[in-house]
């Protein structure tokens, strides 16, 4: 099952990718969709032996052809999974769980990234020895004088109500992660770094130059 997704979709079949989104359909559509694509659309594809995989290898299919095939087999719902998207304008109304835009809209989940620039926000962790659904991850940022990292508050927070335009627009928060901007800074300056010790002076100089350049970019 995909991380953080609803268990309802644990057996759904991966059928492809559109942009950055991974597409899945209910398992009962796997064989009918394959027949439509091969017999009516004349694509040369081979079925995958794994229950959750659609075909072997890969094949580029126009979105129009895929949509026609899905409609032809009576598939009314496609699960789209995408990670890593950030926004500064959270449209809560568009994500309301009571707006049934599709048969499975009530099961829609959103992983929201929000950047907050404020000197009043401190990274923190629970008191050592205390019990709670927390996990601390190692990271290059101090939490206290002796510890470094960020936190993740466990799998369930309960019900939280946000107020938007004077009305309730959102319900349940499943997980909250807190980490410093340094994480995105490191991603933005990603370079391939050797993890082995250099064996020659030339290799050592190249590694040093790469690390120096990355440090300069971060600063």
Question: What does the model show?
Answer:
Strand 6 and strand 7 (167-172) form a beta hairpin. Helices cover 21% and strands 20% of the residues. The longest helix is centred in the C-terminal third of the chain and has 18 residues, at 201-218. The chain has a 3-stranded antiparallel beta sheet, with no helix packed on it. Strands 4-5-8 form a 3-stranded antiparallel beta sheet, with no helix packed on it. The chain has a two-stranded antiparallel ribbon with strand order 6-7. With 219 residues, the chain is α+β, with helices and mostly antiparallel strands. Mean pLDDT is 73; it is low at 153-170. It has helices at residues 30-40, 63-72, 182-188, 201-218; strands spanning 13-18, 21-25, 79-81, 134-142, 148-153, 159-164, 167-172, 176-178. The protein folds into 3 domains: 7-81, no CATH class; 93-183, no CATH class; 189-218.
Report the total helices: 4
Distance between the termini: 40 Å
Main pleated-sheet profile? 3 strands, antiparallel
Helix and strand composition category: alpha+beta
Percent in helix? 10-25%
Strand content: 15-25%
Mean pLDDT rating: 73
Rg value? 23 Å
The ordered H/E elements are EEHHEEEEEEHH
Structure summary, number of beta strands: 8
Shape: extended
Number of domains: 3
Contiguous low-pLDDT stretches (5 residues minimum) are 153-170
If strands are numbered along the chain, what order do they take across the biggest sheet?
A: 1-2-3
């Amino acid at each position: 099952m995909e991380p953080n997704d609803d268990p309802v979709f644990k057996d759904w079949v991966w059928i492809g990718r559109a942009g950055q989104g991974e597409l899945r359909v209910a398992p009962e559509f796997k064989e009918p969709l394959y027949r439509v694509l091969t017999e009516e659309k004349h694509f040369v594809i081979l079925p995958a032996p794994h229950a959750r995989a659609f075909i072997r290898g890969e094949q580029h299919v126009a979105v129009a052809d895929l949509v026609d095939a899905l409609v032809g087999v009576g598939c009314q719902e496609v699960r789209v999974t995408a990670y890593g998207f950030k926004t500064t304008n959270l449209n809560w109304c568009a994500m309301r769980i009571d707006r049934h835009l599709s048969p499975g809209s009530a099961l829609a989940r959103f992983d929201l990234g929000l950047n907050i620039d404020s000197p009043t926000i401190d990274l923190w962790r629970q008191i050592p020895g205390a019990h709670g659904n927390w996990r601390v991850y190692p990271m290059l940022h101090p939490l206290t004088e002796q510890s470094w990292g960020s936190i993740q508050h466990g799998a369930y927070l309960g019900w939280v109500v946000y107020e938007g335009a004077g009305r309730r627009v959102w319900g349940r928060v499943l997980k909250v992660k807190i980490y410093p901007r340094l994480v995105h800074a490191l991603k933005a300056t990603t370079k391939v770094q050797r993890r082995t010790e250099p064996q020659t002076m030339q290799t050592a100089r190249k590694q040093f130059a790469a690390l120096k350049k990355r440090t300069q970019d971060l600063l």
